[in-house]
Amino acid sequence: MKKLIKNGTIVTAADEYKADVLIENGKVSAIGHDLTKHADEVMDAAGLYLFPGGVDPHTHLDMPFGGTVTADDYETGTIAAAYGGTTTVLDFCLTNKGEPLKDAIKEWHEKAKGKAVIDYGFHLMISEVNQEVLNELPSIIDEEGITSFKVFMAYKNVFQADDGVLFQTLLTAKEHGALVMVHAENGDVIDYLVNKALKEGNTDPIYHALTRPPEVEAEATGRAAHLTGLAESQLYVVHVTCSDAAEKIAEARRKGYQVWGETCQQYLVLDQNDLAKPHFEGAKYACSPPLRESRHQEELWKALKMGHLHTIGSDQCSFNFKGQKELGKGDFSKIPNGMPTIEDRFSIIFSEGVKKGRITINEFVDLVSTRAAKLFGMFPEKGTIAVGSDADIVIFDPNIERTISADTHHMNVDYNPFEGLKITGEPVSVLSRGEFVIRDKKFVGKPGSGQYLKRQRYYSPLKIKETIFR
Asked: What are the residue ranges of helices labelled H in 142-242?
């Protein structure tokens, strides 16, 4: 069945224009005017924007952490993502030292099987580098299409890898065309500060932030960038929270290093004071790196505008306040780290960014969709509306005003960190590969319909404009 969306305003990272979009076999087959005679079903999008489906490069679904498991799995998490305008997620596949990487990948495939309602792919965690790991990586890239590897510089004695592992991963990525991602915090210093705080009887959630100051993030970001330059490789710094770290990325890029930066909507609208809320309410806001003092918010917006930061991920990692976050009562270091953020990323960035004049509407599309699709080997199938692209389209009303609340969200969690935030703009309908997942704000998708994405190798985005449709 051919679908036609007519009278909408198409917005990509480069253009904004009124046109009709014809969809056939899951792809955009034509863009133009007076295409009604070619369609079996016609939808009128007058007064609405047509955005490329959001690409969320940073999620944690069905992930074990701190003695518990995230509240949202691949079904509830991707349904919430779709309600919010996201049609592609890249989730992190955790690995165990001494075990084959392919065993972990198999486990993550099982987590998603029959559940995902939108398309998805995996990043692969690298915690050790030895001959077995080095032998596995080329086939993982070729057979699984996993072309991004994550190294943790924090979570000592849990996820943290040393600089040797990071450097060897960078060298391997350069050789095989992969993008290395880092959680950039100095885990050794954090471990010292956390133990010191606990010994002094400082156990409240606010100390989660005070023991992970901006300096430890900036130091690790700069160190990772220098190692990237030395390896002549490529680096993507996840969840940048502060101006100090953003400047380290800008400095590396001025030197010609291929270093990219991501931030998240929570760092743009929430701040460190949230962690100080009484009655243990601050635990709702414990994530790593932590929320910063409010002065960093505008600096991050400026970094996005100036091109020092390049994508906005959600870092979705949901834990219920009751029964999960409460594991850290009396010891902030035991609070499961993370927040439910997958659903509101798209609308918050539109409202706080475009509507408030911080970024243009084209920059918005680039930040929430196009740039991630390019960096992670999915463009031009994902991240744009063009003939030949997947018909991942968000029909968006830019004038709807609403208030974010746990009472109305679709995540499987008992609170929303953005509770009470008034925003403007909301997805009305969302299509994934030409099929409605959300229609008139109601879920009409099917668990298991989301497809696993085998992604292309990383290559310099300077060459992406030469890409042709495969």
From this structure: 163-176, 187-199, 206-210, 214-231
Q: What is the mean pLDDT of residues 245-264?
A: 98
The 10s digit of each residue's pLDDT in 381-438 is: 999 999 999 999 999 999 999 999 999 999 999 999 999 999 999 999 999 999 999 9
The 8 Å CB, 24+ separation contacts for 297-301 are: 297/267, 297/268, 297/269, 297/271, 299/242, 299/243, 299/246, 300/240, 300/241, 300/242, 300/243, 300/246, 300/263, 300/267, 300/268, 301/268, 301/353, 301/358, 301/359
Taking the whole predicted model, whether its pTM rises above 0.85 is answered as yes
How far, in Å, are 161, 176, 275 from residue 169 at the CA level?
A: 11, 10, 35
pLDDT per position as a tens digit, 71-83 = 999 999 999 999 9
Residue 122 contacts by C-beta under 8 Å, 6 or more apart in sequence?
Answer: 90, 91, 92, 93, 105, 108, 144, 146
Q: In angstroms, how far is the first alpha carbon of the chain from the final one?
A: 23
The answer to whether 176 touches 137, Cβ cutoff 8 Å, is yes
Residue 427 identity = P
Closest among 226, 389, 348, 367 to 309, alpha carbons compared:
367
Distance CA 292, CA 273 (A): 8
Q: Is the dihedral of CA 450, 456, 460, 461 positive or negative?
A: negative
- DSSP for 159-175, written as a single string: T---HHHHHHHHHHHHH
Neighbours of 459 (CB within 10 A): 15
